[in-house]
Amino acid sequence: MILRHFMRHVKDQNWLAVGLEVLVVIVGIFLGMQVTNWNDARKQDSRALAFETRLRSNLLDDAVGLEERLVYWEQAAEYGEQALLWLEEGNREGRSDAELVVAFYQASNLWRFAPNSSTFDELRSAGELGMIRDAALREDINNYHAIIGSRRSDILYDFVPQYRYVIRGLIPYQVGREIHEKCQDENPTDQSLKTCKPDISVGNAAEILQELRADPEVKKTLRYWINSARIGIDLARLDMASARKLAARLKVGDTQ
Question: What ranges in the chain are assigned the alpha helix state H?
Fold first, then answer.
């Protein structure tokens, strides 16, 4: 229809009408492109918001996971300090032989931590980190994952100390099982250490302590482990705070 009108105006040499027809076509094309661009931008904003919401959720997962583990790691470190105090100074602070055996064993416990980097890894692998629209925030999130990833092998997150191998090789298997069953709570998503009274005979506990004191590897590896654990706990607190701050900066993803 438009083309027929256009050709008739050309044939009639009605140049004003021809100009108007051309203008209408140009405006129509322009408006169509604007609508397309607007729709594309809206879709891009929607995708960015979805990714930022997921990133925020991942960071909050990290913060909660670290908070839970810090309680556990603090308990394990305190048990280690109790055992080390007895080894180095003979000070048992009123603890029985059985309680000291428990302290040696509990100090070897681990609860690994792996950051939830699923969304960040997805964006990075797809070359779409630009979906984090704030450039400064994007850089800070990238640095957070680089730092927390570097901690995996050398502090508490995914580090198995030599002390664990030494102590669990010296404490009799049945005693270790007794402590594990009565002094720890475990489920697929949570762990905790608890005050307990395992069934360890007085004579057996005394023999175990004597063997632990006689082995130089116990004191040496325990010292190293407790020092490392305390450093790891301090760093974990920093990581937890960083995760929470970054999540707060991604408040655009908060649907509440």
Answer: 2-11, 15-89, 97-106, 118-125, 135-150, 162-170, 173-183, 202-214, 216-249
Strand partners, 184: 193
Pairing, β 190-193 against β 184-187: antiparallel
The tens digit of pLDDT for each residue in 33-75 reads: 665 555 545 666 677 788 899 999 999 999 999 999 999 999 9
Task: Say which DSSP state 132 is in.
Answer: S
Phi and psi at residue 138, in whole multiples of 5°?
Answer: -60, -45
Query: Can you give the residue ranges of every domain in the chain?
Result: 2-253
Burial (CB count within 10 angstroms: exposed 0-12, middle 13-18, buried 19+), residue 135: exposed
Helical ranges in 126-201 per DSSP H: 135-150, 162-170, 173-183
Please report, as a single letter, which amino acid is at residue 56: R
Q: Is the pTM of this model over 0.70?
A: yes
Burial annotation 188-199 (CB, 10 A radius, 16+ → b, else e): eeebebeeeebe
CA separation for the pair 36, 95 (Å, rounded): 75
Taking every pair of C-alpha atoms in the chain, what is the biggest distance, in angstroms? Answer: 119
Measured CA to CA, the distance from residue 181 to residue 27 in angstroms comes to 78
